[in-house]
C-alpha cells in the first residue's frame, strides 16, 4: 500500500499535463486581452482625431462631400464627430425616466422651491373651470 506522500506524487504526475495546459491557456488569454485593450485604446484615439478633423472642417466641406470624396460612409463620419469628447459636460438624465414624462411627482420633491407643480391633465382643468 502506498504512503500518503506517494499518492500525492502520483496525483501530481497525472495532473501535471492538465495543469500545464490550463496555465498556458490562461496566460495566452491574458496576453491577448491586454493586446486587445491596447488596440481598442489606439482605435479610440484615432476615431477621436478623425472626429476633431471632420468637425473642424465642416465649415469648408460637408460630411456628405467628405464621404463622396473619401468613399467613407457618411454615417461613420457623423459617428466620429458625435463621438468626440466635448469640453462641456452632458446633463445626466434621472435613472428610469422616459421621454416626455416627469421623473418625479410633486410629492417626491419634498416641497423644494424651484420645482414647478405639474400641470393638471386637460380634462381635470375643464372640470375645474366648470365648477
How would you portray this structure in words?
By secondary structure, the protein is mainly alpha-helical. Helices cover 62% and strands 0% of the residues. It is built from 4 helices and no strands. Helix 1 (4-57) packs across helix 3. It is elongated. The chain starts with a helix and ends with a helix.
Walk me through the topology.
Layout: H1 4-57, H2 63-70, H3 74-83, H4 122-130
Task: Provide a brief overview of the structure.
This protein has helices spanning 4-57, 63-70, 74-83, 122-130.
Order of helices and strands: HHHH
Main β-sheet: number of strands, strand sense, barrel status? none
The percent range for strand residues is under 5%
Distance between the termini: 101 Å
Query: Helix content range of the residues, please?
Result: 55-70%
Number of helices, where a helix is a run of at least 4 consecutive DSSP H or I residues: 4
Region (Disordered): 77-131
Biased composition (Polar residues): 100-112
Biased composition (Basic residues): 85-95
Key features of this structure:
131 residues; mainly alpha; single chain; disordered C terminus
Amino acid at each position: 500500500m502506498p504512503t500518503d506522500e506517494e499518492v500525492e506524487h502520483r496525483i501530481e504526475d497525472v495532473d501535471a499535463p492538465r495543469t500545464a495546459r490550463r496555465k498556458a491557456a490562461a496566460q495566452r488569454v491574458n496576453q491577448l486581452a491586454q493586446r486587445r485593450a491596447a488596440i481598442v485604446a489606439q482605435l479610440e484615439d484615432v476615431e477621436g482625431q478623425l472626429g476633431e478633423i471632420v468637425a473642424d472642417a465642416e465649415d469648408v466641406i460637408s460630411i456628405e462631400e467628405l464621404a463622396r470624396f473619401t468613399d467613407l460612409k457618411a454615417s461613420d463620419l457623423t459617428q466620429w464627430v458625435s463621438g468626440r469628447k466635448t469640453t462641456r459636460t452632458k446633463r445626466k438624465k434621472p435613472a428610469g425616466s422616459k421621454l416626455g414624462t416627469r421623473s418625479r411627482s410633486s410629492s417626491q420633491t419634498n416641497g423644494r422651491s424651484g420645482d414647478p407643480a405639474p400641470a393638471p391633465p386637460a380634462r381635470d382643468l375643464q372640470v375645474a373651470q366648470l365648477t
